[in-house]
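WARN retry 2 of 3 for item q-0093 after timeout on previous attempt; input resubmitted unchanged.
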Amino acid sequence: MSINEYFILAIGGIVLLLIYYIVSRDAQQTKQIRVIATAIEKINNQLFNLEKEFNQRLSIIQENSTDTMNSADLNYELEVGISEYTTPLKEQISKLADELILTKEQLNKRILPLEGNIKNLSLPSSVTGLDDERIVSLYKQGIGLDAISKELRLSKAEVEFVLKINKLK
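OK item q-0093 returned
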């Protein structure tokens, strides 16, 4: 076989592949169109049923409108209808409010001791006046800030603070 024959065979194969691709693609699109058509048909059926039900209810309302209700009866019907929906909601809100109060009390029981502990931890002992006299006396003896803070187990800033308050530094 010559190169021309191979070339023609290759082109023929490519043409066959293109035809197969087009046919398979067309089949997929046809399938998708059928699915869409089925969905549209279902929607149309539902729309028809809803329209039929609407017309039935409209005719019932029109028939009942000839039997006029006075405003007291209408108000009573509204109150009964509303209370059917609001009563369970009121009960749920009441339960939630009780749970919220209980949770608040539990949180307060937990928070109060924590606040006390935090205050004790956050206030330096020199502010309470326990170590102020010792800091001043050690400083007057000529001991340095680092040595005072190590001996009294205070930070250097606390020692400086006490000395500034006492106008020694």
